[in-house]
Every structure is written in structure tokens, then in C-alpha cells.
Amino acid sequence: MKFTRVGAVVLTLVVVALGGIVDRAAGATTQIGAVTEVRAGALPSPISSGGFVVQFAEAAGSTYAVPGGYGTITAWSHSTGGTAGALTFKVYRPTGGPQEFLVVGSDTQTVTARTVHTFPVRIPVVPGDRIGLSSEDVETSYESNSLADRIGFFGSDPPLGATQATDGEPFEEFKLDVAATLESDPSAPEPSPTPSPVPPYLIEPQPAVVSRLSIAPRNLVAARSGPSIQGAKRRRSGTIVSYRVDIAARVRFAVRRIRPGRRTGNGAAARCVTRNRRNRGAARCRRVVPLKGGFAQMARAGSNRFRFTGRLSGRRLKPGAYRLVAIPAANGMFGKAVTRGFRIVR
Questions:
Q1: CATH number of the CATH domain containing 215
Q2: Per-residue CA distances from 329 to 83, 253, 339 (Å)
Q3: Which residue has the higher pLDDT, 19 or 236?
Q4: Is residue 175 a part of any domain in this protein?
Q5: Burial status of residue 96 (CB atoms within 10 A of its CB: 0-12, 13-18, 19 or more)
Q6: 61 by DSSP, 3-state: which?
Q7: Residues contacting residue 239 through CB under 8 Å, at least 6 positions apart
Q8: When you count CB atoms within 10 A of the terminal residue's CB, does the N or C end of the chain come out lower?
Q9: With bands split at pLDDT 50, 70 and 90, how would you rate the model's confidence at 206?
Q10: pLDDT tens digits for range 97-147
Q11: How far is CA 216 from CA 47, 238, 243, in A?
Q12: Domain of 292, in residue numbers
């Protein structure tokens, strides 16, 4: 069979045309969110356990907002940390009000620990929509060390179709552990305006207040390995720490050890010092010794909880009496510290 010059030209045109179709098909999808981290299976921060969160803003080079030309989310992915459980993918549409969003998409799945999950969905979106996560226990975010990465917390989990504003100022240096795959839509409208990063408060911001700090059980066995905090599931080691905070805040926890000592001095000059030969006959007292290290949790307004493993700075706490100190930080201010005692039995 002879191949004429005309036939070659026609074949060339067909190949070019098919190549154009393939190119357009290849460019028909894109991904937003923590694409690199999720793809690599990076584990989220243990302090991001639980919460109802939207990515409010992000550093240059990444985006959690639907870009122009795309109209459907076809899948979402998450790299689960050490806590398994129910996890809800959310799509939020900025309303234009201060930190206010409308929930336009939702998909709830069960994730297993230390696994990268991808779930197919069909959620219609418009440019400017933002993605978020909701969970009671699962870790949701990475610590990015970039001030431009900011996440907003909702005081309660907003249902599909609800309009709700995030609490307080967004948390800096965090990005959500979620990625979404988008399908192109040439008829998609232009991106919607982004919300103002600073809400116009009519009253002076107040510090966050921690209350109802509880440790149960108070006598615990320190875990042999792992981080200081994990999801709030009861296990043979560790204990459940629960508390309330009036607004979304980053709550820092410190640990102090209670040690025996001897009292020296009188009145305002009295101190509790280490027992030695000279003071062994002095009155007994208890010394409160701050320990190096600590941990934190991004707390939503209302009830929060986590499992404290009895470990600090990568080491098991030794048997003895301790105090756990909670210090909230929000609106650029530190709130009043709250303390509760516990004991390591082994």
C-alpha cells in the first residue's frame, strides 16, 4: 500500500489534532491544598488534634482556593497522623462578611492512622471557594513556620448550607493537611473576593480564658514512646486532659514537678529549697520545679480534649507528683494560667 504525500499531510494533521486533544485533556484537572505534603505522606502536627477549620490564607506558591476556570472538585486527599476516626472535607464560600463563610460542600469519611487517603466526590464549586476539614479527634494541620499560612476555627461544626464566621483572629503558621483535585469548567465565573484578614472589631479584643481543666485519671502510667499528646482515645497509658476555652486559642501546656524541700527564711523572704545537711532540720515544704519543654493544642471555642501520654521532650516522666499548666494565647495576648495536679505511678 502506497502512502501519498497528501495522505502523509492528512495523517500529520490528525496526529496534531489528537495531540491537541490530549494536551487539553491533560490540562483539564489541577490540585489545590497541601499537595506536596499529602503526596509524600507527611504526618500532621500532633497539636492539631480535632477542630472545625478552614484555610483562611496561605503563603505564595500554594493555594487552598478554587482558581478560575474550574467548576467541580472530583476528589480530596488527606495524610492521616497518629489518630484514626471520622474526618469531614468541607468547601467554604466567602460571603464578603468579616471572616464569614457559607458551607457549599461536605463529605465525611473514616480514616486510618498513618495512611494517605483519597476519596472521590462530585462537589460543584466556583472560583474563590476554599477547602477545610472538620473532626473531633483527627489531626488536621501542618506547622508551616510561615506567617502567611493562616487557618480559621469555627466554634461549632457548621452544617451544609449554613453561614458562619470563624472565631477570633486566624492562627498563623499552620496549613491544612488536605488536597483537592479540580475539574476544569471554562464557563466558571471569576473568583469571588477574599475576606478581610482582620475583622473590624467594635470592642477591644480580650485575652482567652481557660476553665474546667480536668485530668482523668489523675494517676497515670507514662507511655514508653510517642509524642506528648495524641487523640483523646483511652489507652492503657496516659490520661485524658479536657478543658474549655471561651474563644479559639492556642493553648500552651507546661509541666512542673513537685519535689520535697526545706523552708528557709521568714516572711516574704521565705523560700523552699533543696534539702541538704545544713537545712535538714528545717520545716518541710514542697518545691515546684519547672521542667524544660512543653506542648500546645489549637483549641476551638468550647470543649477540647486530648490524651497526655506522660512524656515530655521525648522522654517519659519519672514517677512522682506533677502539675500541668495551661496558658491560652489569642488576639496577641496571653490569658491567665490554669493548673491541675497529676501523678506518674510508673
A1: 2.60.40
A2: 25, 11, 16
A3: 236
A4: yes
A5: exposed
A6: coil
A7: 215, 216, 217, 218, 220, 307, 308, 310, 342
A8: N
A9: confident
A10: 889 999 999 999 999 999 999 999 999 999 999 999 999 889 999 999 888
A11: 19, 9, 11
A12: 210-344
